[in-house]
Design the sequence.
């Protein structure tokens, strides 16, 4: 049985994309997974690492290295996992799957005779381009690693057309598109009620996602509508993010039509949200990745047999319009999306949920697994 090493700097309890990689591979390969955290699974070796703590001194040294374009030194300070070279270096891997650009330097340190698949979950050089500090310090850092490593990988994946086109334009490598679609669920849409429409949003909470827009949207909707938000934050969330969560709670105040619910594991999202009517997501295009997002949550909404209500994000809107799943606002303002939602009656809502049921047959992880396995076959794996 061939050995596969999966590298990811995240908590797999909330990383559905990497968990799908594991599900696809575990039947035919021996897997070693390096991550921050995960539920144990039979036959898989998990090596759990701690996210590097950026003390003030480490941040200062890293900032100097970034400004002086000493990117390799900056990387060592940012991702202090040199011990993995000794721990993993004695094993021969047939394949290394490197998730996101931050793992690529480590992947090449461990490469030996391995083939490397790079899965770019985001467009790294413009990830937080709306943040001036990030642009000054980190944009050159990520451009450097993209230029250095992307031409050397054996294959590359990403989540949608916009990101794929940008990588090909700037780094000469055309990624294979594997969307963030979750597995197919054999479930029915929940019953639509005449005088109650339940909205649901789930995802990461940080300031750039502007969750307050969906909260403010409720001021423009009548009493039929309620909004529940399942929000996740990293164990290593910054003080700014923690402050933002409190600001969101204060903005909701005592509004009985809005609730924040505790996070659930990625595997539990679809069954949990199936009870709702509409999945809602309003994300202003403040950076390139947000403008080109095609997130897990859209496919979760579809597998949960929900109608969908979104802003005019191009690739998301294309799916909603092509499959006739719901409504797309004219712009990214709360009022604009509320105007679209206000037009819905029970019959129209039931229609959208039935179309979501049809779309679930096409937009699922099983379809993506076939693309993934074809790629492995091309690489003689």
Sequence:
């Amino acid at each position: 049985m061939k050995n596969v090493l999966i590298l990811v700097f995240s908590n797999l309890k909330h990383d559905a994309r990497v968990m799908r990689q594991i599900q696809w591979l575990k039947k035919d390969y021996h897997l070693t997974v390096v991550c921050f955290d995960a539920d144990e699974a039979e036959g898989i070796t998990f090596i759990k690492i701690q996210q590097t703590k950026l003390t003030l001194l480490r941040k200062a040294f890293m900032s100097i290295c970034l400004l002086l374009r000493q990117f390799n030194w900056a990387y060592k300070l940012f991702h202090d996992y040199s011990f993995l070279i000794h721990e993993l270096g004695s094993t021969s891997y047939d394949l290394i799957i490197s998730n996101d650009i931050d793992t690529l330097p480590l992947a090449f340190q461990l490469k030996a005779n391995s083939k490397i698949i790079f899965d770019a979950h985001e467009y790294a050089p413009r990830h937080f381009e709306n943040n001036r500090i990030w642009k000054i310090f980190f944009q050159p850092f990520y451009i450097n690693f993209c230029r250095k490593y992307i031409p050397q990988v054996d294959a590359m994946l990403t989540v949608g057309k916009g990101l794929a086109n940008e990588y090909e334009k700037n780094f000469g490598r055309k990624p294979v598109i594997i969307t963030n679609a979750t597995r197919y669920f054999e479930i029915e849409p929940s019953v639509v009620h005449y005088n109650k429409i339940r909205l649901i949003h789930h995802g990461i909470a940080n300031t750039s996602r502007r969750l307050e827009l969906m909260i403010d949207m409720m001021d423009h909707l009548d009493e039929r509508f309620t909004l529940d938000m399942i929000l996740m934050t990293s164990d290593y969330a910054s003080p700014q993010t923690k402050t933002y969560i409190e600001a969101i709670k204060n903005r909701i105040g005592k509004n009985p039509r809005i609730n924040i619910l505790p996070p659930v594991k990625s595997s539990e999202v679809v069954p949990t949200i199936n009870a709702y009517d509409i999945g809602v997501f309003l994300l202003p295009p403040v950076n390139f990745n947000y403008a080109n997002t095609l997130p897990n949550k859209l496919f979760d909404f579809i597998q949960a047999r929900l109608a969908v209500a979104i802003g005019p994000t191009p690739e998301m809107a294309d799916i909603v319009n092509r499959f006739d799943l719901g409504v797309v606002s004219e712009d990214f303002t709360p009022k604009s999306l509320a105007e679209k939602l206000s037009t819905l009656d029970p019959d129209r809502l039931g229609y959208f949920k039935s179309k979501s049921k049809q779309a679930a047959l096409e937009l699922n992880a099983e379809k993506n697994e076939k693309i993934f396995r074809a790629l492995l076959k091309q690489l003689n794996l």
